[in-house]
Amino acid sequence: MEGATDQTSRNSNAPQTSSTAVDAELEENRKLWSESRLHDYDMLIEHSGGNGLEIAESVKIQVRAGQASSITSTRKTDPRSIADFQKIDTVEKMFKHIQDLRDKTAASVNSKNKADVGFPKLNIKYHDKLGYPTKMSILWSLASDAQTTFEVRKLEPVNVQ
């Protein structure tokens, strides 16, 4: 599919007037992805985190028939860090993870700890043509200033016979 590796993306960090606008953007991109009918693809994802946003891990994920068939580290790091990617090892799981985080943010409005209200904060970028998330930045709380970022560096369709 042409343009799959093109990292042109739309940015959702523009000020949103409501959570409804963010939810609409999520659904619009989910629909674009669904219409692409990509079920077999390889992704290269980098995960960074902490205050300095050091790259903690980079993995290659093979997806076949919509399911992750392999997750391989591209660095010589602790294999346990691969578990960080299991929540987002397919594009569909990425959309679910974003929705779960949006739900958590909405629920935080009722938090007794005022520092938790409105967190986690999300900044999501989507691929222009295919709609998959190209970058997810998550600020967990104002108190800790801890941020996690997952970036899809490459997504390539695979022809499976």
Please give the structural blueprint.
Blueprint: E1 9-11, H1 19-36, E2 41-49, E3 54-64, E4 67-73, H2 91-107, E5 121-127, E6 133-139, E7 147-157
Antiparallel strand pairs: 1-5, 2-3, 2-7, 3-4, 5-6, 6-7
Helix pairs in contact: 1-2
Give your account of this protein's structure.
This protein is of the alpha+beta class and 161 residues long. It has a single domain, classed as Clam (outer membrane lipoprotein receptor (LolB), chain A), CATH 2.50.20. 22% of the residues lie in helices and 34% in strands. It has a seven-stranded antiparallel beta sheet with strand order 1-5-6-7-2-3-4, covered by helices on one side. Strand 6 and strand 7 form a beta hairpin. Helix 1 (19-36) packs antiparallel against helix 2 (91-107). The two termini are 16 Å apart. The model is unreliable at 12-17 (pLDDT under 50).
